[in-house]
Specification:
Layout lengths: L1 H16 L12 H20 L6 H12 L8 H34 L5 E3 L5 E6 L11 E9 L5 E4 H4 L3 E4 L5 H7 L7 E6 L20 E10 L1
Antiparallel strand pairs: 1-2, 2-6, 3-4, 3-5, 3-7, 6-7
């Protein structure tokens, strides 16, 4: 986040310094192009952080006040608190939306043909039924998998990489631990994993947000 706002400071200060000169936004000099490029980077960064819009006039006013040594309307300490509170509220909002969306999906999904719901809330559908052995929690397994969010976004896929993955059964998310012990070698299941059996409130990396319900296609290739 510090890097985001550092870049933002550079971009807006450049815009503020050149505001009168280039009111038509033409990129006539090198610094014009650099400024515009920084603006693209910052805007995309902020959108990815959850901002739907920014009041650019207020932001430019703040930069002008700071660089002109005018009295600012909000102190730096107050500004830091406001920014932190905004992101906390944004995170809580997105988290609640993810819970609601996930619950609605799973409630509808469990009514679909072939979908089985376990006592834990894990849902799965058998795509291919294998005839081999079944792993235990202490085994290592080799699998192919393809993971998506509810909107279809692919966040991880050994299939796309063209290389299966090997790991201990008890070394993955809870939903996988349960599902793998239901599968025979040669089986391919589609898993619908509630957030509490996945990464929960913490999410994972930049792709899996807090309280995300996950969908996987998993093929059990071998027990090692």
């Amino acid at each position: 986040m510090k890097n985001t706002f550092f870049i933002l400071i550079i971009a807006i200060s450049l815009v503020a310094c050149n505001q009168e000169k280039h009111t038509n936004n033409e990129l006539t000099t090198s610094i014009d192009s650099v400024s515009y490029s920084l603006g693209i980077s910052v805007a995309n960064n902020l959108k990815n952080s959850g901002f739907e819009s920014i009041e650019t006039d207020a932001m430019t006013s703040a930069f002008n006040d700071v660089f002109a040594a005018n009295d600012v309307k909000i102190t730096e300490e107050e500004a830091n608190v406001l920014i932190q509170e905004y992101f906390m509220e944004l995170s809580e909002k997105k988290s609640k939306e993810a819970v609601s969306e996930g619950n609605a999906f799973l409630e509808e999904n469990k009514q679909r043909d072939g979908v089985i719901t376990t006592a834990s809330g894990l849902q799965y559908k058998v795509l291919v039924k294998g005839e081999g052995a079944m792993p235990s929690a202490s085994d290592n397994v080799t699998v192919h998998y393809h993971g998506t969010l509810l909107d279809g976004t692919v966040f991880d896929s050994s299939v796309d990489r063209g290389e299966p993955a090997t790991f201990p059964v008890n070394g993955v998310i809870t939903g996988w631990v349960e599902a793998l012990q239901l599968m025979n070698i040669g089986s391919k299941y589609k898993l619908f994993i509630p957030s509490n059996l996945a990464y929960g409130e913490r999410g994972a990396g930049g792709s899996i947000g807090p309280n995300s319900t996950l969908i996987f296609e998993v093929e059990l290739l071998s027990i090692n």
